[in-house]
Amino acid sequence: MAVSIEAPRAPRTRTTRRTTGRTNYELYGWVFMRASGVLLVVLIFGHLFMNLIDGEGISAIDFGFVAGKWASPLWQVWDLLMLWLAMIHGTNGVRTIINDYAERDGTRIVLKVALYLAFTVVVVLGTLVIFTFDPCPPDAPANLLPSFCTA
């Protein structure tokens, strides 16, 4: 009885994954990760500078500070862009990890559905909070309200 062993440098074929045509999806994901990473560094350091260094430090961050900051459309868009880019960047990275390490198709599908569901919930809720935030809520104590609110 003869046993044949593949050559050690022979290309391996995976039977669990289907390959359908050639697309540039992974290339676009790779380029996006680099571009969004650079932009996220700028957005995050701008965020930290504004909140911690330019102001009175961490002790000044409270409801009134956030309300005053989000009263400006610039900071709403800034924080929205930071949220969206961070979530897309992180989701793409975790998607790549799932593709690399999940062996079975069923496991891969379940993990990706959970990932995309978590992405959707966080992005929708974060976007709603940023754009529906009321800096002057009724019945709030006057000492907690920002200076531009009339109590």
TrEMBL record:
Task: Give the domain of life.
Answer: Bacteria
Statement: the UniProt record of this protein carries the keyword Repeat: no
Residue intervals passing through the bilayer? 27-50, 70-88, 109-133
Annotated localization:
Membrane
Question: What species is given as this protein's source?
Answer: Actinotalea fermentans
The record's GO molecular-function terms, alphabetically, read: metal ion binding
Q: Which CDD domains match?
A: SQR_TypeA_SdhD_like
GO cellular component annotations, sorted alphabetically? Answer: membrane
UniProt protein name: Succinate dehydrogenase
Pfam families assigned: Sdh_cyt (PF01127)
By its UniProt entry, which InterPro entries does this protein fall under?
A: SQR/QFR_C/D (IPR034804), SuccDH_FuR_B_TM-su (IPR000701)
The alphabetized UniProt keywords are: Heme, Iron, Membrane, Metal-binding, Transmembrane, Transmembrane helix
